[in-house]
Amino acid sequence: MCGITGWVSFDRDLSTEHATLAAMTATMACRGPDAAGVWLDTHVGLGHRRLAVIDLDGGRQPMAVEHDGRTVLVTTYSGEIYNYRELRAELAARGHAFRTESDTEVALHAYLEWGEAFAERLNGMYAFALWDPRTEELLLVRDRMGVKPLYYRPTPDGVLFGSEPKAILAHPEARAAVDAEGLAELLAFTKTPGHAVYRGMRELKPGHTLRVRRGGITERRYWGLESYEHTDDLPTTIATVRELLDDIVARQLIADVPLCTLLSGGLDSSVITALAARGLAAAGQGPVRSFAVDFTGQAENFTPDALRGTPDAPYAHALAAHVGSAHRDIVLDTADLTERRHRDAVLAARDLPQGLGEGDTSLYLLFKAVREQSTVALSGESADEVFGGYAWFHDPAAVAHDGFPWMYVLARGFTSGTARLGPQSLLAPDLLAKLDLPGYRDARYREALAEVPRLAGESGHERRMREIGYLHLTRFVQILLDRKDRTSMAVGLEVRVPFCDHRLVQYVFNTPWAMKNFDGREKSLLRAAARDVLPEVVAQRVKSPYPSTQDPRYAEALRAELRALLADRDAPVRDLLDLPAVARAVADAPGADLRNAGESVLLLDGWLRGREVSLEL
To answer: CA dist 313 to 58, 260, 298, 441, 497, Å?
Structure first.
């Protein structure tokens, strides 16, 4: 995994702009701690930071292909192409010669052979740029599910691009300006495809390419979810899911560096760990390493709540023992979670205060500890979106809600659950009126519904569940994939996401909900497909979200920080706050309220305090 950036300017000579490209590239040193490279030509500059995973010696970038001493194609590439070996063999049979064993070189030759249509042949997670000196054109490519991020900013004579906004913002002509629409996107908890929050910046949509020519910019979709009739019966469907999972995990075990799995003891991560253990054993390798996150004292003092009925540790240990993994618990103390530099590190990684508070901090610290022993980790992320695992998939009121179903559940929790304050409860009323977050969410929801690929004759509950599946696979999953990418790459850890393989996603998307929920449980198909590799206690476990500390000292640490913020008349976030509401929360709000509302305030303050952000509302 790596970080990429670049600059195309058709009206300037960029061959002397090494300092600018180097500065843009340096912003992504964490994404690629192993090497750095810059390539310049008259109208283009490409930058690369490398995390070496495959072909450690031969995969340096930017990488070029030359014919007769002339450069014909250059790339700066991030990601993994899991079918690169098959593509390499096919290209070699067509006469292509290779200098390295890297998947990067395969991408270059695949473009030379098939042109822009080559993207449709790739299986993997990737975001990269290809510069063709012969035509002076740039092509940006992003993977189908958007596992790897890629941002761009059109300019009057070209484009700036990067794996993260910070790479673009390091250019002297780019500004970190956010208008009312950008702030609404930031606060609405809905990820709009293509929206990047910062004015003038865009995120390349998943499954899209962007071609940059002298005449302008052209975006093209090369993949998207499609609806078709599912003709397999239930046993065949279960068998097909398992065949796909076996193939996917086998492909994603390829690495020339230490590899592990992230194991919570839930169904998703347990399936990946069990299949990885089998795959490594079959290859004469192993045992698989596995890591879980926990909190000091939580295993002994866990208290069930509305979200989490069971602690992770016993189930993670049961799965580890069942498959013989080399398992390690990463146990975090409240002092780790409340340390300001850790929150600042997450904020710096994410570029925006879009985080989940302590959930992001603990994930970052987990990844940081994992990176001490492994460079690549396999995750169970996205199974809930693919197979229908969230509670609201099974809540009739949430399903019937005329809006994003997760927002219905969140809003209900803030009004009738243990927490009375939502994430925006402490913001100034006039700011909330200007942003109109309910209206913004509704507009984005209507856009998403209009995109849903319909199936002729489908109606009623099946039609609605197709809509809900589409909303999760194109919106909600992007929130979590972005979180996973930024917090892992902040410490130079590559996290792979087997459940995002487009073949599996497309197949299960078209499986009727009656099959996905055939036994009345969440993720029925996944459980049935992998039951033979799981201990019964894990197979029967009810879904539990990513863990959170239950230590009351965490909320009290937030209270102290908010109290200090109120006393700081120079705090940049003050103009955005309902200061009396903040004072009341600091004085008497219970811990759950402080966590929901207070973390958002502190993130906003850290964002405005540590960066040259201009709010132009």
So the answer is: 41, 18, 9, 37, 22
Residues 6+ apart with CB under 8 A from 168: 5, 24, 151, 152, 153, 160, 161, 162, 174, 201
Identify the H or E element spanning 331: strand 326-332
Per-residue CA distances from 25 to 35, 60, 239, 334, 494 (Å):
11, 14, 45, 34, 18
Contact status, residue 62 vs residue 48, Cβ threshold 8 Å: yes
* Phi and psi at residue 5, to the nearest 5°: -160, 170
Q: What is the pTM of this model?
A: 0.97
CB 380 within 8 A of CB 520: no
CA atoms within 13 A on the CB side of 215: 3
Backbone angles phi, psi at 141, to 5 degrees: -135, 135
Q: Which domains does the chain have, with CATH numbers?
A: 2-221 (3.60.20.10), 234-539 (3.40.50.620), 552-611 (no CATH)
Distance (Å, rounded) from C-alpha 256 to C-alpha 381? 23
Among the listed residues 2, 30, 260, 500, the single catalytic one is 2
Q: What tens digit of pLDDT does each residue of 139-176 get?
A: 999 999 999 999 999 999 999 999 999 999 999 999 99
Give residue 419's pLDDT. Answer: 56
> Exposed, middle or buried, 282 (CB in 10 Å: 0-12/13-18/19+)?
exposed
For residues 175 and 168, what is the distance between their CA atoms, to the nearest angstrom? 9
- Strand bridging mode 259-262 / 63-67: unpaired
Measured CA to CA, the distance from residue 226 to residue 121 in angstroms comes to 17
Amino acid of residue 297:
G
Peptide bond into 512 cis (omega under 30): no
| Annotated catalytic residue 500 | no
Q: What is the pLDDT of residues 537-579, one digit of tens each?
A: 999 999 999 999 999 999 999 999 999 999 999 999 999 999 9
Six-digit token string for 102: 């890297």
- Distance in angstroms (rounded) separating the CA atoms of residues 595 and 605: 15
Taking a C-beta distance cutoff of 8 angstroms, is the pair 226, 452 a contact?
Answer: no
